[in-house]
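Teaching assistant's notes for section 4

Start the section by putting this record on the projector. Ask students to predict, before seeing the second block, whether RidA family protein will look compact or extended. Collect guesses on the board.
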Amino acid sequence: MKKIIYTEKAPAPIGPYNQAVLTGNTLYTSGQIALDPVTMELVLDDIETETRQVMENMKAVLAAADMTFEHVVKTTIFIMDMGNFARINSVYGAYFDEATAPARETVQVAGLPKGVNVEISMIAVKA
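Reveal the predicted structure now:
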């Protein structure tokens, strides 16, 4: 059975999807972009600020499922320009303990929603 996860502390879905779905002890998140959850405006000052907003949105979604970044087992990062990888990775890495960091892939794509530079999705498991 699946449970829909929703929090006002992360951007509301802008299409036919949910912020996350919990099934059993596994959480599948939708991709988060740098939307401010209060204003629903994009936060695109620079790639670090944009990535931080994405991670804060994801933190809120995880919290709504009573989880933290420690529960994350897999992430997918979609970026527009692989030249930004090191800067994105620096912000992303600050949210994880390197010794227990999740599996991950990073993919450069041709386009992302609303013209953003980075989108991140996660899978988390609570034992």
